[in-house]
């Protein structure tokens, strides 16, 4: 075929003079025709990227892992206090239920153990969060590409499903590390600090040696490995709305900010006058949009985190209580329903929202930081 097809990419809110390009690009003629009808813009040197290539998967995984680690480090002290409140730790339960209790709990932790106390369990957090965030963002990119190959498939249910499936995949592979992190944050007794092998290995041994839920004599080791998945069911139930709502809200607010009336204030157009650093990934406009200004990107991420937290918080409380159940219930395993009943008997309906104020204070900067760092690292890596 002698005819060369010049790449034309519609970018919302972008203005540029017509330019001639002699470089052919592997884009279908029908796609180019449809694009040109929307906005007649021609790229000088577009970079074509296969989103399902190994390079893209690795780069997006690195970007996601770094973004998740940065976000968790930012809010680690708040995370520890929230876990202590959620699990009804006897030393800190009197502080829960009030905004001032947050600062009193932080002050007490700092008085006992200094700054290290505020970050207790953070090493386990980082061991978990890097693969967790990496898997989550990689899965979302790949699942979204399959479910939404172009704009005609861009629907709310598909967006929610892509986010939910990404969250479920990531939590399945990293849940044992999350349980260890929660147990590290929950423990305040000094004998844990003196445990042989350090705090982390001490908790691993303690969880492994706890009485398993199911007695399987021939497979005792396998049964005890199940101890590291206590609370997994409510985690999955909570992850479906948590990840789904977060990604959906983030993309929805991006759409709003790129609307005709707001794009002049929110979209970074001036950095892409030559269009040479734009990338061609799929036929979906989601993969051809310009980045937002810093404040707009942070706002989108923060709002996504707040709505996701509100949707999934009761499941998170149940999960935390199940994870430390062997400590608070004399080693007895409680099912989801029994754990929920225990929470309701102790504190009523408000018991499912204990620590939610801290949760909001935590997730807004965490999600804002996570999405912002992820998008910026992707740009630096050229994807």
Topology:
Blueprint: H1 29-38, E1 47-48, H2 54-74, H3 76-86, H4 99-118, H5 122-147, H6 156-186, H7 190-193, H8 198-209, H9 220-225, H10 232-257, H11 263-266, E2 279-280, H12 294-323, H13 325-328, H14 336-347, H15 356-381
Helix pairs in contact: 2-5, 2-15, 3-4, 3-15, 5-6, 6-10, 10-12, 12-14, 12-15
Protein name: BA75_01600T0
Pfam family, one: Mito_carr
Transmembrane segments: 352-374
H-E string: HEHHHHHHHHHHEHHHH
Distance between the termini: 30 Å
Which stretches are poorly predicted, pLDDT < 50 over at least 5 residues? 1-43
User: Helical amount among residues, as a percent range?
Assistant: 55-70%
What is the correct CATH architecture of the largest domain? Alpha/alpha barrel
The side-by-side strand order for the widest beta sheet comes to 1-2
Task: Kindly describe this structure.
The protein has 15 helices and two strands. Mean pLDDT is 79; it is low at 1-43. The chain is an all-alpha fold and 383 residues long. The longest helix has 31 residues, at 156-186. The chain folds into two domains: 1-48, no CATH class; 51-381, Mitochondrial carrier domain (Mitochondrial carrier fold). Helix 3 (76-86) runs antiparallel to helix 15 (356-381).
